[in-house]
């Protein structure tokens, strides 16, 4: 037993930077969202307007969740719970895979297995750490709600809903780590299940039944298949019912027990699903460094493109219905006009532009993930083998950077194509509006700046490049996408590259801003290439 506790302490020490950032970030986001909603929708009339708008539109229900009254707490929970729950799920899945399947892949688990501990001790310690992290998250989220002036009972129930979703996905990731042969595939399937939970919850909410006054919605049965759906049924600020959390908690206990049983019976490094054996030699066109970089990144790019296509399709297909509802809600129309410049533009264009802004985050994330793939190759020793052949470090860097750049453009372009087709299918246009494709691509220069930041972090501080890269993206999103809503100074908002993208089709394309962003990106990557050539490879 004492050995297991030492394992928990050892794992917590390894996560002493990453885990606090996740937990504090989610709590801070909760506090900022609560404060912003209280400021922007201070009177009941404006809150009722946005709740009625959401209740009448499947798109809002899909993206946000269930409206449940007009109190400040109810609107805050409706606006933020689904996103917060997704973050809690991702935090938990990454934590579990990092300490289980990834450790087996890197050989750390073999060292731990050399000491007299039960075979499943490492997995059990990981589950304990995951549960502890989510309990701490529960407390801090509740404190964030309380600090923004919301009732104590509702704040505690809302925090428990977020923490319960995290605990559920802790157990899900534990099972995924037994199924999949690599840490990357286990992370992929775990994160995919988090996204599926959000989508299933969204479908159930979009098919839900609104009350006669449009101030609340009862979700349809698909929402019951998602732990996020169970979490939002707690209704913490209206009629708290924590018993709803028993279902995901019981499911988590069952999944955790299954994972421990499987771990006790399988060999170290084995998996229930075998790793696919590749060809002995690369085919035609697959032997270059560029082809290798694309092969390593293509699965992640496909995933980001699917997300961008879904977002673009929602923007196009539901844009006309949403604009019709917005036109009857003056406070919301004013708010959207402030978030997206060009108040004289059509509401469909404003709505599509707002969702293209979110798609640009996907594009930047896809590019950053492509750049950080170099860090994984370096840390796991494969980069050293690759660079032992006649291939310069500059070519390796350039090939991965090219693939990351193409990935960002593909994700943005996919969102534009999906929006054009969706708008056409909605019946509001005679055919696809292909001008939406360049409108989506206008955000690529901003994404390239984040790629440059990631390359600099990789070249200068490889051990913390993952935290630095994703942290800079998070800061850029808060400043650029929510700075106006949060009332931040203009100079601080302008620090985000997203603020300098042309908001097409609401605005005309600004070539000078795009050129400036590209110049910054090129300068950053050139510096990164310079520093990368002068440092040693590190584990």
Characterise the protein shown here.
Helix content is 72%, strand content 1%. A two-stranded antiparallel sheet has the order 1-2. The longest helix is centred in the middle third of the chain and has 38 residues, at 289-326. The protein has helices spanning 2-14, 18-40, 44-55, 58-64, 72-99, 101-106, 108-113, 121-147, 152-179, 183-206, 227-232, 246-265, 289-326, 330-339, 347-379, 382-386, 393-425, 436-441, 444-460, 465-486, 490-493, 511-532, and strands spanning 209-210, 217-218. Helix 4 packs antiparallel against helix 10 and helix 5 runs antiparallel to helix 8. The chain has 22 helices and two strands. The radius of gyration is 24 Å and the shape is globular. The model has no long low-confidence stretch (mean pLDDT 84). By secondary structure, it is mostly helical.
Distance between the termini: 32 Å
* Assembly type: single chain
Strand content: under 5%
Helix and strand string, N-terminal first?
HHHHHHHHHHEEHHHHHHHHHHHH
| Overall geometry | globular
Characteristic terms for this protein:
22 helices, 2 strands, mainly alpha, 539 residues, 72% helix, single chain, two-stranded antiparallel sheet
Outline:
With 539 residues, the chain is mainly α. The chain has helices spanning 2-14, 18-40, 44-55, 58-64, 72-99, 101-106, 108-113, 121-147, 152-179, 183-206, 227-232, 246-265, 289-326, 330-339, 347-379, 382-386, 393-425, 436-441, 444-460, 465-486, 490-493, 511-532; strands at residues 209-210, 217-218. Helix content is 72%, strand content 1%.
